[in-house]
Amino acid sequence: MDKVIIAKDLSLSYSSSETIINKADFSVNSGSFVFITGASGSGKSTLLKSLFGALKPKQGSLVVGGVELKGVSRSKLNFLRRHIGIVFQDYKLVKEWTIDKNIMLPLLINGYVKNVASNQVDKLLKHVRLNHQSGKFPLELSGGEQQRAAMARALAHNPVLILADEPTGNLDEYSSQLIWNLLEGANSQLNTTVIVVTHNIPKTLNVDYKHFHIEYGSIHEVC
Amino acid sequence: MKSVRNHLSLVIALLSIIFSMQVYLIAERSIEAYRVNLAQNYSVIAVSKKRLEQNEILSINNIISDAKELSPDSVIEKLGSDMKSSNFELLKLTLPKFYKLSLTHYPTPDEVKNLRRDLLKNSSITKVEDFSHTHDKTYKLLLLFKNVVGLFAIVVFVVTVLLITKELKIWQYKHNERMSIMGLFGAALWLRSAILFRLAIVDALIATLLAFGIFTYLASSPLILEQFANIGINIVIFDQVDDLLLILGVAMSISILLASLIVLGHKEEA
Lengths: 223, 270
Known about the structure:
The structure holds 2 protein chains of 2 kinds.
Chain A: E1 3-12, E2 21-29, E3 33-38, H1 44-51, E4 59-64, E5 67-68, H2 74-81, E6 84-87, H3 99-109, H4 114-127, H5 143-155, E7 161-165, H6 173-190, E8 193-197, E9 210-215, E10 218-222
Parallel strand pairs in A: 3-8, 3-9, 6-7, 7-8
Antiparallel strand pairs in A: 1-2, 1-4, 4-5, 9-10
Helix pairs in contact in A: 3-4, 3-5, 4-5, 5-6
Chain B: H1 2-41, E1 43-48, H2 54-58, E2 64-70, H3 73-79, H4 85-94, E3 97-103, H5 109-121, E4 125-129, H6 132-184, H7 189-220, H8 222-230, H9 242-265
């Protein structure tokens, strides 16, 4: 099976004095569902940032989607990011844009024609049950609705990899369940690799998953 | 409404800068017109023992633009009408020659001194009247005006820099988040910056059009025209081609500089 992520001897840090992830070795198969857990400040989000190139490896090698992220050029990083969907706990929606335009963003970046992108947005809004909120700005929506819009944006361009940083951290039970269903659907129906950083793995999940736990800078797989 | 608010902050800043710049230009033009006016009305009188050729006078100092011999008739007429005509002619021949010297521009006190010295070097010229007392007073007044306008220009420059710095911070705050989010999905730099540059160009055009409207109105306003007529100055308050191009250039340069600084100063979210 193809490996979508390969980390060898990977060390991550924000400064030269403190290492967050220390000499980690792990890999993720294409089409798998992965949870990354750990205590607050253990380096879960740091690891996720490194997977989309927001933090470069201090040492070792990190290959995502065939792209070596150590010393990666800006153009290669942009190319990689066009094939990744990212979901954040704080949604990261552009506040001055409507949710439609936010969802359309990865489609336009990937070169979709505007009316094709617009049709795709309509489908996605229905898919995340936000079609009644079309044309609204993010701040006019509830937290759960904003996260669903962010999910739609992450799914819009059929990415090979979805990275989600505590996607249900601020949400009620109903919205959380919807988000898990969407992630599950992307993984099972589209064979998208999903990596989720979370404190709690949901008990209702209907997919096989891999679980990595981070402790004291080390990553180990929980069986 | 949101869109109007997005544009308003930069448009107002640009408009203030354009307005101050145009007012400075009007002040400069007024002073220049006043200076030309003074230069036209100011002249030096030279008294010569013998008739001098125009070329000879012009070669004395470059500042002399024209030399006219003053007719002695009016002076002689005042001496009395009982004089014989033959005596009149004799008197005319023996009287010294008076020359009114026009100058290329309104001279500085030093230029007046140099002109006086150069004229007196000529052995034929016996006396020079330069009206230095009146000249000094007028020149000092002109200098005062120039300094006030210069000071105004410095204040405008400082205010402009402050406005641009403030605007830069607002724009950085407003656009950094969107640029970062676009970057997360792999947007190239030109695409991330496109909105910013489009906004900058549109705002520069709006500010230019508003300034054009304001100054076209002011340039034809009877109240303004009357003020200039009262002080005897006739200047172009707003040139609809040259001034329009100038304010468009300034507005575009400032907004594009602002957008470029934001793009260059943009940091990726880590």
